Protein backbone atom coordinates (compact mmCIF):
# COMPACT_ATOMS: atom_id res chain seq x y z
CA UNK A 1 0.00 0.00 0.00
CA UNK A 2 1.69 3.20 -1.19
CA UNK A 3 1.37 6.39 0.83
CA UNK A 4 1.81 10.04 -0.17
CA UNK A 5 2.42 12.42 2.74
CA UNK A 6 1.05 15.87 1.96
CA UNK A 7 2.98 18.10 4.34
CA UNK A 8 6.28 16.78 5.70
CA UNK A 9 6.62 18.81 8.88
CA UNK A 10 7.02 17.61 12.46
CA UNK A 11 4.21 15.06 12.19
CA UNK A 12 4.88 14.11 8.58
CA UNK A 13 8.53 13.30 9.32
CA UNK A 14 7.49 11.02 12.16
CA UNK A 15 4.88 9.26 10.01
CA UNK A 16 7.58 8.39 7.47
CA UNK A 17 10.09 7.33 10.14
CA UNK A 18 7.70 5.12 12.08
CA UNK A 19 6.40 3.44 8.92
CA UNK A 20 9.98 2.61 7.96
CA UNK A 21 11.42 1.79 11.40
CA UNK A 22 8.41 -0.31 12.51
CA UNK A 23 7.93 -1.88 9.10
CA UNK A 24 7.93 -5.50 10.32
CA UNK A 25 5.54 -4.80 13.23
CA UNK A 26 3.16 -2.88 10.98
CA UNK A 27 3.21 -5.67 8.40
CA UNK A 28 2.47 -8.23 11.12
CA UNK A 29 -0.49 -6.19 12.34
CA UNK A 30 -1.91 -5.13 8.96
CA UNK A 31 -0.93 -7.97 6.64
CA UNK A 32 0.41 -5.46 4.13
CA UNK A 33 3.52 -3.40 3.57
CA UNK A 34 2.67 0.28 4.06
CA UNK A 35 5.23 2.25 2.09
CA UNK A 36 5.67 6.03 2.19
CA UNK A 37 6.83 6.79 -1.35
CA UNK A 38 6.56 10.58 -1.75
CA UNK A 39 6.18 13.68 0.36
CA UNK A 40 4.89 17.11 -0.67
CA UNK A 41 6.55 20.18 0.85
CA UNK A 42 6.37 23.92 0.28
CA UNK A 43 10.09 24.54 0.42
CA UNK A 44 12.47 21.99 -1.10
CA UNK A 45 15.48 23.90 0.28
CA UNK A 46 14.54 23.14 3.88
CA UNK A 47 16.28 20.07 5.26
CA UNK A 48 13.95 17.24 6.28
CA UNK A 49 15.06 14.07 8.03
CA UNK A 50 13.34 11.59 5.70
CA UNK A 51 14.61 9.34 2.93
CA UNK A 52 11.70 9.44 0.51
CA UNK A 53 11.14 11.44 -2.65
CA UNK A 54 10.16 15.05 -1.90
CA UNK A 55 8.43 17.44 -4.28
CA UNK A 56 6.69 20.78 -4.19
CA UNK A 57 4.39 19.79 -7.07
CA UNK A 58 1.17 18.91 -5.24
CA UNK A 59 -0.90 18.44 -8.38
CA UNK A 60 1.47 15.86 -9.84
CA UNK A 61 1.25 13.78 -6.65
CA UNK A 62 -2.54 14.00 -6.54
CA UNK A 63 -2.65 12.60 -10.06
CA UNK A 64 -0.27 9.70 -9.52
CA UNK A 65 -1.90 6.33 -10.17
CA UNK A 66 0.40 4.38 -7.83
CA UNK A 67 -0.77 6.12 -4.63
CA UNK A 68 -3.30 4.23 -2.51
CA UNK A 69 -3.67 6.60 0.47
CA UNK A 70 -3.07 10.33 0.88
CA UNK A 71 -2.03 11.50 4.35
CA UNK A 72 -3.06 15.15 4.61
CA UNK A 73 -0.88 17.06 7.09
CA UNK A 74 -0.88 20.45 5.36
CA UNK A 75 -3.06 22.25 7.89
CA UNK A 76 -5.39 25.10 7.02
CA UNK A 77 -8.98 24.78 5.91
CA UNK A 78 -10.04 25.72 2.40
CA UNK A 79 -6.95 24.55 0.47
CA UNK A 80 -6.88 21.31 2.43
CA UNK A 81 -10.58 20.80 1.74
CA UNK A 82 -10.02 21.08 -2.02
CA UNK A 83 -7.10 18.63 -1.86
CA UNK A 84 -8.93 16.05 0.25
CA UNK A 85 -12.09 16.41 -1.83
CA UNK A 86 -10.13 15.80 -5.03
CA UNK A 87 -8.50 12.67 -3.61
CA UNK A 88 -11.82 11.26 -2.38
CA UNK A 89 -13.57 12.03 -5.66
CA UNK A 90 -10.88 9.93 -7.31
CA UNK A 91 -11.66 7.09 -4.87
CA UNK A 92 -8.36 7.43 -3.03
CA UNK A 93 -8.38 6.80 0.71
CA UNK A 94 -7.43 9.73 2.95
CA UNK A 95 -6.04 10.06 6.47
CA UNK A 96 -5.85 13.49 8.10
CA UNK A 97 -4.87 15.12 11.39
CA UNK A 98 -6.55 18.37 10.41
CA UNK A 99 -9.15 19.27 13.07
CA UNK A 100 -9.88 22.70 11.61
CA UNK A 101 -10.75 21.13 8.26
CA UNK A 102 -13.13 18.71 9.95
CA UNK A 103 -14.67 21.36 12.21
CA UNK A 104 -15.99 23.07 9.08
CA UNK A 105 -16.26 20.35 6.42
CA UNK A 106 -16.72 16.97 8.11
CA UNK A 107 -20.24 16.38 6.81
CA UNK A 108 -19.38 17.49 3.28
CA UNK A 109 -16.36 15.16 3.28
CA UNK A 110 -18.41 12.27 4.66
CA UNK A 111 -20.82 12.64 1.75
CA UNK A 112 -18.01 12.83 -0.81
CA UNK A 113 -16.14 9.88 0.73
CA UNK A 114 -19.05 7.47 0.62
CA UNK A 115 -17.47 4.01 0.91
CA UNK A 116 -13.92 5.33 0.40
CA UNK A 117 -11.92 5.02 3.66
CA UNK A 118 -11.36 8.29 5.52
CA UNK A 119 -9.37 8.25 8.78
CA UNK A 120 -9.02 11.13 11.24
CA UNK A 121 -8.07 9.64 14.61
CA UNK A 122 -5.14 12.05 14.85
CA UNK A 123 -7.40 15.11 14.62
CA UNK A 124 -8.45 14.91 18.29
CA UNK A 125 -6.13 14.52 21.29
CA UNK A 126 -3.06 13.17 19.52
CA UNK A 127 -2.33 9.57 20.47
CA UNK A 128 -5.48 9.16 22.60
CA UNK A 129 -7.83 6.81 20.68
CA UNK A 130 -10.98 8.79 21.44
CA UNK A 131 -12.40 8.51 17.90
CA UNK A 132 -12.14 4.73 17.98
CA UNK A 133 -13.61 4.63 21.47
CA UNK A 134 -16.70 6.61 20.50
CA UNK A 135 -17.16 5.11 17.05
CA UNK A 136 -16.41 1.49 17.98
CA UNK A 137 -15.95 0.65 21.67
CA UNK A 138 -18.97 2.67 22.86
CA UNK A 139 -21.08 2.23 19.75
CA UNK A 140 -23.89 0.47 21.66
CA UNK A 141 -24.18 3.36 24.12
CA UNK A 142 -26.11 6.57 24.27
CA UNK A 143 -23.52 9.19 25.14
CA UNK A 144 -24.64 11.31 28.09
CA UNK A 145 -21.69 13.69 28.19
CA UNK A 146 -18.13 14.33 27.08
CA UNK A 147 -15.74 16.50 29.11
CA UNK A 148 -12.15 16.87 28.12
CA UNK A 149 -8.84 18.66 28.39
CA UNK A 150 -8.12 18.85 24.67
CA UNK A 151 -5.39 21.47 24.42
CA UNK A 152 -1.98 20.85 25.98
CA UNK A 153 -0.79 24.45 25.66
CA UNK A 154 -3.62 25.84 27.78
CA UNK A 155 -3.32 22.98 30.26
CA UNK A 156 0.39 23.67 30.71
CA UNK A 157 -0.27 27.38 31.32
CA UNK A 158 -3.07 26.74 33.81
CA UNK A 159 -1.00 24.11 35.63
CA UNK A 160 1.85 26.61 35.92
CA UNK A 161 -0.50 29.24 37.31
CA UNK A 162 -2.16 26.85 39.77
CA UNK A 163 1.03 25.25 41.09
CA UNK A 164 3.83 27.64 40.26
CA UNK A 165 2.58 30.93 41.69
CA UNK A 166 2.98 32.59 38.30
CA UNK A 167 0.70 34.90 36.37
CA UNK A 168 -0.71 34.28 32.90
CA UNK A 169 1.92 36.29 30.99
CA UNK A 170 4.81 34.52 32.73
CA UNK A 171 3.29 31.07 32.20
CA UNK A 172 2.64 31.79 28.52
CA UNK A 173 6.22 33.03 28.02
CA UNK A 174 7.58 29.83 29.58
CA UNK A 175 5.31 27.71 27.39
CA UNK A 176 6.65 29.51 24.32
CA UNK A 177 10.25 29.03 25.44
CA UNK A 178 9.64 25.30 25.84
CA UNK A 179 7.95 25.04 22.44
CA UNK A 180 4.51 24.25 23.88
CA UNK A 181 3.00 27.51 22.62
CA UNK A 182 3.26 29.21 19.24
CA UNK A 183 4.58 32.74 18.79
CA UNK A 184 0.93 33.67 18.20
CA UNK A 185 -0.86 31.46 20.76
CA UNK A 186 -4.39 32.78 20.11
CA UNK A 187 -5.66 29.56 18.57
CA UNK A 188 -4.74 27.58 21.71
CA UNK A 189 -5.36 29.99 24.58
CA UNK A 190 -8.52 31.33 22.94
CA UNK A 191 -10.17 27.90 23.04
CA UNK A 192 -10.52 27.54 19.26
CA UNK A 193 -8.30 24.46 18.93
CA UNK A 194 -10.29 22.65 21.63
CA UNK A 195 -13.56 23.76 20.02
CA UNK A 196 -12.64 22.18 16.69
CA UNK A 197 -11.92 18.90 18.45
CA UNK A 198 -15.14 19.04 20.47
CA UNK A 199 -17.20 19.51 17.32
CA UNK A 200 -15.69 16.37 15.79
CA UNK A 201 -16.48 14.33 18.90
CA UNK A 202 -20.02 15.73 19.07
CA UNK A 203 -20.68 14.59 15.51
CA UNK A 204 -19.69 11.04 16.39
CA UNK A 205 -21.51 11.03 19.74
CA UNK A 206 -24.71 12.79 18.68
CA UNK A 207 -24.73 13.16 14.90
CA UNK A 208 -24.96 16.92 15.32
CA UNK A 209 -23.68 19.34 12.68
CA UNK A 210 -22.44 22.57 14.24
CA UNK A 211 -19.71 25.01 13.29
CA UNK A 212 -17.31 26.85 15.64
CA UNK A 213 -19.35 30.04 15.26
CA UNK A 214 -22.42 28.24 16.64
CA UNK A 215 -21.01 27.28 20.04
CA UNK A 216 -19.76 28.99 23.18
CA UNK A 217 -15.97 29.47 23.08
CA UNK A 218 -13.93 31.38 25.69
CA UNK A 219 -10.21 31.41 26.39
CA UNK A 220 -7.99 31.57 29.46
CA UNK A 221 -6.24 34.91 29.02
CA UNK A 222 -8.26 36.86 31.64
CA UNK A 223 -7.51 34.50 34.53
CA UNK A 224 -5.30 36.18 37.13
CA UNK A 225 -3.68 35.51 40.51
CA UNK A 226 -6.85 36.53 42.37
CA UNK A 227 -8.73 33.69 40.68
CA UNK A 228 -5.96 31.25 41.57
CA UNK A 229 -6.13 32.39 45.20
CA UNK A 230 -9.88 31.77 45.33
CA UNK A 231 -9.98 28.39 43.60
CA UNK A 232 -7.14 27.04 45.74
CA UNK A 233 -8.86 28.27 48.90
CA UNK A 234 -12.15 26.61 47.88
CA UNK A 235 -10.55 23.33 46.71
CA UNK A 236 -11.11 23.85 42.99
CA UNK A 237 -8.72 23.84 40.06
CA UNK A 238 -9.10 25.52 36.66
CA UNK A 239 -9.04 23.60 33.39
CA UNK A 240 -9.91 24.64 29.85
CA UNK A 241 -12.61 22.07 29.10
CA UNK A 242 -14.49 21.06 26.00
CA UNK A 243 -17.95 19.99 27.14
CA UNK A 244 -20.75 18.22 25.29
CA UNK A 245 -23.91 17.26 27.19
CA UNK A 246 -27.19 15.74 26.16
CA UNK A 247 -30.13 17.78 27.50
CA UNK A 248 -33.34 16.09 26.40
CA UNK A 249 -33.29 16.14 22.60
CA UNK A 250 -30.72 18.93 22.56
CA UNK A 251 -26.95 18.99 22.98
CA UNK A 252 -24.98 21.77 24.64
CA UNK A 253 -21.49 22.38 23.26
CA UNK A 254 -19.06 24.72 24.98
CA UNK A 255 -15.36 25.38 25.50
CA UNK A 256 -14.20 27.60 28.36
CA UNK A 257 -12.04 27.76 31.49
CA UNK A 258 -13.86 25.76 34.13
CA UNK A 259 -13.67 25.40 37.90
CA UNK A 260 -13.70 21.72 38.84
CA UNK A 261 -13.21 20.11 42.28
CA UNK A 262 -9.63 19.05 43.00
CA UNK A 263 -10.74 15.48 43.70
CA UNK A 264 -12.15 15.05 40.19
CA UNK A 265 -10.01 12.89 37.89
CA UNK A 266 -9.71 15.60 35.23
CA UNK A 267 -8.35 17.98 37.89
CA UNK A 268 -5.29 15.75 38.25
CA UNK A 269 -4.31 16.00 34.56
CA UNK A 270 -1.41 18.47 34.49
CA UNK A 271 1.13 19.93 32.11
CA UNK A 272 0.72 19.32 28.39
CA UNK A 273 -1.25 16.09 28.83
CA UNK A 274 -4.81 15.61 27.57
CA UNK A 275 -7.68 13.60 29.02
CA UNK A 276 -11.27 13.00 27.96
CA UNK A 277 -14.07 11.64 30.13
CA UNK A 278 -17.08 10.05 28.43
CA UNK A 279 -20.22 9.11 30.34
CA UNK A 280 -22.55 6.69 28.58
CA UNK A 281 -25.72 4.92 29.61
CA UNK A 282 -24.39 1.36 29.52
CA UNK A 283 -20.64 1.65 30.15
CA UNK A 284 -20.79 4.46 32.72
CA UNK A 285 -17.72 6.70 32.84
CA UNK A 286 -14.67 6.00 30.67
CA UNK A 287 -11.61 8.22 30.77
CA UNK A 288 -8.79 8.30 28.26
CA UNK A 289 -5.50 9.99 29.14
CA UNK A 290 -2.32 10.59 27.20
CA UNK A 291 -0.19 12.80 25.00
CA UNK A 292 -2.45 15.15 23.10
CA UNK A 293 0.13 16.51 20.70
CA UNK A 294 3.67 16.07 19.46
CA UNK A 295 5.16 14.52 16.36
CA UNK A 296 5.37 10.90 17.48
CA UNK A 297 2.04 10.84 19.33
CA UNK A 298 0.12 12.33 16.42
CA UNK A 299 1.96 10.15 13.90
CA UNK A 300 0.99 7.09 15.96
CA UNK A 301 -2.68 7.97 15.50
CA UNK A 302 -2.20 8.60 11.77
CA UNK A 303 -0.61 5.19 11.33
CA UNK A 304 -3.36 3.46 13.28
CA UNK A 305 -5.75 4.69 10.58
CA UNK A 306 -3.40 3.48 7.85
CA UNK A 307 -3.32 0.03 9.45
CA UNK A 308 -7.13 -0.05 9.55
CA UNK A 309 -7.24 0.80 5.85
CA UNK A 310 -4.64 -1.88 5.06
CA UNK A 311 -6.73 -4.43 6.98
CA UNK A 312 -9.79 -3.51 4.94
CA UNK A 313 -11.61 -1.99 7.91
CA UNK A 314 -14.01 0.61 6.57
CA UNK A 315 -16.23 2.14 9.23
CA UNK A 316 -18.74 4.93 8.59
CA UNK A 317 -16.70 8.13 8.78
CA UNK A 318 -18.76 9.76 11.57
CA UNK A 319 -20.00 6.50 13.00
CA UNK A 320 -23.50 6.14 11.54
CA UNK A 321 -24.69 3.84 8.75
CA UNK A 322 -28.16 5.36 9.15
CA UNK A 323 -27.50 8.96 10.27
CA UNK A 324 -31.17 9.93 9.99
CA UNK A 325 -31.84 7.58 12.92
CA UNK A 326 -29.09 8.97 15.15
CA UNK A 327 -31.51 10.82 17.42
CA UNK A 328 -32.15 14.08 15.57
CA UNK A 329 -30.43 16.16 18.24
CA UNK A 330 -30.48 19.94 18.01
CA UNK A 331 -27.90 22.37 19.35
CA UNK A 332 -28.92 23.95 22.65
CA UNK A 333 -28.76 27.73 22.35
CA UNK A 334 -25.93 29.34 24.30
CA UNK A 335 -28.20 31.40 26.55
CA UNK A 336 -30.05 28.24 27.68
CA UNK A 337 -26.94 26.60 29.15
CA UNK A 338 -27.30 25.91 32.88
CA UNK A 339 -24.46 25.48 35.36
CA UNK A 340 -22.99 27.11 38.46
CA UNK A 341 -20.98 30.31 38.02
CA UNK A 342 -18.00 32.03 39.62
CA UNK A 343 -17.66 35.83 39.59
CA UNK A 344 -14.73 38.10 40.43
CA UNK A 345 -15.66 41.76 40.94
CA UNK A 346 -13.18 44.51 41.74
CA UNK A 347 -15.12 47.21 43.54
CA UNK A 348 -14.90 50.39 45.57
CA UNK A 349 -14.99 49.33 49.21
CA UNK A 350 -17.89 51.31 50.63
CA UNK A 351 -21.24 50.82 52.32
CA UNK A 352 -24.03 49.55 50.09
CA UNK A 353 -21.93 47.92 47.38
CA UNK A 354 -22.63 44.33 48.42
CA UNK A 355 -26.33 45.04 48.88
CA UNK A 356 -26.57 46.55 45.40
CA UNK A 357 -24.77 43.59 43.80
CA UNK A 358 -26.94 40.98 45.52
CA UNK A 359 -30.05 42.96 44.61
CA UNK A 360 -29.05 42.93 40.93
CA UNK A 361 -28.39 39.21 41.25
CA UNK A 362 -31.82 38.63 42.73
CA UNK A 363 -33.49 40.60 39.95
CA UNK A 364 -31.80 38.25 37.46
CA UNK A 365 -32.67 34.98 39.19
CA UNK A 366 -29.18 34.42 40.61
CA UNK A 367 -28.71 33.15 44.16
CA UNK A 368 -25.42 33.08 46.04
CA UNK A 369 -23.93 29.76 47.13
CA UNK A 370 -20.58 31.10 48.44
CA UNK A 371 -19.10 34.56 48.97
CA UNK A 372 -15.67 35.91 49.88
CA UNK A 373 -14.33 39.46 50.18
CA UNK A 374 -10.60 40.22 50.16
CA UNK A 375 -9.15 43.73 50.45
CA UNK A 376 -5.68 44.43 49.01
CA UNK A 377 -5.68 41.26 46.90
CA UNK A 378 -5.22 43.08 43.60
CA UNK A 379 -4.57 46.63 44.76
CA UNK A 380 -2.98 48.17 47.88
CA UNK A 381 -5.65 50.86 47.79
CA UNK A 382 -7.59 50.77 51.08
CA UNK A 383 -10.70 51.84 49.19
CA UNK A 384 -10.66 48.79 46.88
CA UNK A 385 -11.77 45.21 47.47
CA UNK A 386 -12.13 42.04 45.45
CA UNK A 387 -15.43 40.20 45.78
CA UNK A 388 -15.87 36.55 44.83
CA UNK A 389 -19.21 34.84 44.34
CA UNK A 390 -20.32 31.32 43.47
CA UNK A 391 -23.92 30.98 42.38
CA UNK A 392 -26.34 28.10 42.49
CA UNK A 393 -27.23 26.58 39.10
CA UNK A 394 -28.34 29.39 36.80
CA UNK A 395 -29.08 30.12 33.17
CA UNK A 396 -26.40 31.66 30.95
CA UNK A 397 -28.88 34.33 29.85
CA UNK A 398 -29.44 35.49 33.45
CA UNK A 399 -25.70 35.58 34.12
CA UNK A 400 -25.07 37.72 31.04
CA UNK A 401 -27.87 40.10 32.05
CA UNK A 402 -26.35 40.44 35.52
CA UNK A 403 -22.90 41.24 34.11
CA UNK A 404 -24.33 43.84 31.70
CA UNK A 405 -26.13 45.58 34.55
CA UNK A 406 -23.54 45.40 37.30
CA UNK A 407 -20.67 46.74 35.19
CA UNK A 408 -22.64 49.98 34.73
CA UNK A 409 -22.41 50.69 38.46
CA UNK A 410 -19.91 53.40 39.40
CA UNK A 411 -18.37 51.29 42.17
CA UNK A 412 -17.17 48.63 39.65
CA UNK A 413 -13.50 49.38 38.96
CA UNK A 414 -12.63 46.65 36.42
CA UNK A 415 -14.42 44.49 33.91
CA UNK A 416 -16.34 41.77 35.82
CA UNK A 417 -14.90 38.31 35.30
CA UNK A 418 -16.89 35.06 35.21
CA UNK A 419 -16.07 31.35 34.90
CA UNK A 420 -18.36 28.34 34.85
CA UNK A 421 -18.25 25.50 37.37
CA UNK A 422 -18.67 21.77 36.70
CA UNK A 423 -18.96 19.53 39.74
Structure report:
The chain has 423 residues and is of the alpha/beta class. It folds into 3 domains: 127 residues, NAD(P)-binding Rossmann-like Domain (Rossmann fold); 167 residues, Dihydrodipicolinate Reductase, domain 2 (2-Layer Sandwich), CATH 3.30.360; 83 residues, ACT domain (Alpha-Beta Plaits). 35% of the residues lie in helices and 26% in strands. Strands 7, 8, 9, 10, 11, 12, 13, 14, 15, 16, 17 and 18 form a 12-stranded mixed beta sheet that branches. A hairpin with a 2-residue loop joins strand 9 and strand 10. Helix 5 runs parallel beside helix 10 and helix 7 crosses helix 8. The radius of gyration is 24 Å and the shape is elongated.
Which secondary structure elements does this structure contain, and how are they paired or packed?
Blueprint: E1 2-6, H1 10-21, H2 23-30, E2 35-40, E3 53-55, H3 58-62, E4 69-72, H4 78-89, E5 93-96, H5 99-113, E6 118-119, H6 130-137, E7 143-149, H7 152-164, H8 168-177, H9 186-189, H10 192-206, E8 216-217, H11 225-233, E9 236-247, E10 250-261, E11 273-280, E12 284-291, H12 295-311, E13 330-331, E14 338-348, H13 353-363, E15 368-375, E16 384-391, E17 394-395, H14 396-406, E18 417-421
Parallel strand pairs: 1-2, 1-4, 2-3, 4-5, 5-6, 8-10, 10-13, 10-18
Antiparallel strand pairs: 7-9, 7-11, 9-10, 11-12, 14-16, 14-17, 14-18, 15-16
